[in-house]
Amino acid sequence: MTDSTTVVTGHGANGRDGFRHLVHAEWTKFRTVRGWVAGMAVGVALVVALGLMSAAGSHASCGMGDVETACTLTTGPGGEAVSDRFFFVHRRLDGDGSITVRVDSMTGQIRLPDATPGVRNVVAGVVPWAKAGIMVKDGVREGASYAAVMVTARHGVRMQHDFTEDVAGGPGGVSPGSPRWLRLTRSGGTLTGYESDDGRRWIVVGTARPARLPATVEAGMFVASPGDLTVSRGNLGGASVQVRFTEATAVFDQVRLEGRVEGRTGGTWSHDDVGVAYEPGGRTPHHPGRFTESGGTFTITGVGDVAPSTEGMRIESTLSGQAAGLVAVMVVAVLFVTAEHRRGLFRTTLLAAPRRGRAFAAKTVVIGAVAFAAGLTAAALTVPLGARILRANGNAVLPVSTFTELRVVAGVAALTAAVAVLALACGALVRRGAAAVTVVAGLVVVPHILATASVLPLGVARWLLRLTPAAGFAVQQSVPEYAQVLGYYSPQGGYYPLPPLAGLAVLCGYAALAAVLAAVRMSRADA
Amino acid sequence: MRRELRAEWTKTRTAPGTAWLTAAVVVLTAAASAAVAATVSCPAAGCDQDVPRLGLAGIQAGQAAVAVLAVFAVTGEYGTGMIATTFAAMPHRGRVLAAKAAVLTGLTLAAGTVAVLASVLAARLILPGNGFTAANGHPPLSLADGPTLRAAAGTVLQLALIALLSLGIATAVRDSATAAGVVCGLLYVLPLVPHMAADPGWRRLLWQATPANAGLAVQTTTHLDDLPLGPWEGLGVTAAWAAAALLGAWLLVRTRDVRA
């Protein structure tokens, strides 16, 4: 009688203590089965080995002609990779001031895919993100801090600064007969962009506080025209993206620069083809911009873009072995529950802990924690080391902030834990090891592979990564999609349709649902 | 051998999962094929799509059910201890393995044939509505067409070879979850490895060596020159993997103690 009272007290009054006990029991079960610990170790080893091997096998060199150099990236004030190529007609402005222009027209040319192989197929036209406007910049160095207000060919007026920031103004471009007035005013560290249809009524487009704008800046007119894209899909999956030359020409007049302005060469405007590349030999610029001035009217032609760049490898490309590692984790998680049923140990477990939901919760905690640790170990080794190997091999790896890198590593750990919980729950639901492993692999790994490495249409691939547990892989994406940059943002290129944490939430939702169903089944079914 | 065949057939026939899994092979293959056919489209200007391959794409889903069917055929017995009884009644272990392989092959060939016929029918009905018309060079899918027949028959054979490969692996590891993990790795993860290789020579070699890449070459009907392997040679790669797995299983089952 006394004994049974003690037992009831042990499980009833000290509930938390009892659960700690259960977790400890499950952890002891896990760590004493050599095969399970080995399985987790195999999972970690697969991620690290495949990741580092593929990084070691990836070599790149850049340069034109015979001169090969390591590929370098231009970085912006925030440390991200940027493209900073445009034609700039400018004067030095000291302290506060403002610049006002009227943009009268915007024309250009686009090179289309060759109709006859080898013959340049150039037509008149402007690409949607061709830009003409005014800019205040910390000198003419590539990647320097700036703020600009501009009119684009198809995206209306925009206010942009420091490459990644973009605010939309009024819609519509410029055409002969309907010019656009633009104004950029500096007051201390704040720049305000205005637009106007007539030069009298001004509308604020936006304000910007660029990261590092010194007292003396270069202020002036700029034109840029990003390359046009051709995407061709391969026969065996994958896509190749070709960037074609384009240029834009804009006409500016009514130019007024107010403030303490210094003319470097006798009060005239300086001009720079910022970021231009040179042909082999280093003298002839490749696709140069140009400008002419007559009677206060400036005609400026520019090539390139002032925007974040996504050209290069990403740190998460070192995680190529992750699918293999996850399969190993799934097997261990499924075995962690099905082995008990098979050996009849589960009946003993239930004798020791009759509240079945709690026994299962303890299992979930243990497998989740073990898988989190395994994923963390694998990613913390693979991502930094793999990125270092890639850079040492001359590859341009897109730089990301420490916070983003930590998010990727921690995200992989959370992804591994969620997959392990999902597998455990499926194991408890199905009770047949092979079926559970296949179902979980079919839910997590297969949709991801189909979406990123197959001939599936883009729309289907995106829906797979929204609706299936494979959405969780979004947590790896280190470089975001930029609305202001034309690109082929496909899952094959590493762009997921959901934001990182939303994707992880979808996967966790599936894992939680499966765990609840498993707990319900466990409390109702026979052991 | 007749005794063994009969015993294995009776066990397979009466096991609770067999009917479900055989149905799953058919349903998963046909449904996934139909889903792919429903989502692809061909613009009026024409498209460069391998239509038979699209119509048979459901094998990617169906092969998982085949693998589970094969794994259960072995690990079910190891899990319950039935295997000891089996070997006591039929001491010639190689024959037991051969009988299991024969029964499984028959079952997979039958299910695979139904699955492939259903897939082809679905594609034949759905694809013309999505712009795959005779006018832009894609007549309705028909088994009277030589390459299409080869793709369809090859797909059935690929499923049977995957079953044998899975049977070999399951016999070697004797545990259901582990066997399924290894087979899933072979079918779904290994095909990615060639993409990781930077050197084109290695990439080609790895592609030729992976059963899920090379074996599906048998489904290809366009741009055959771009393939690193011919269609039947590709199927031969899967056959070599299956043969190696069965050989390994035979050696282990002959020499090992009955239970782990």
Automatic annotation (TrEMBL), chain B:
Residues 1-37 form the signal peptide. The keyword Transmembrane applies. The chain crosses the membrane at residues 61-89, 101-127, 147-170, 177-197, 234-253. It comes from the Bacteria. Keywords: Membrane, Signal, Transmembrane, Transmembrane helix. This is ABC transporter permease. It comes from Microbispora hainanensis.
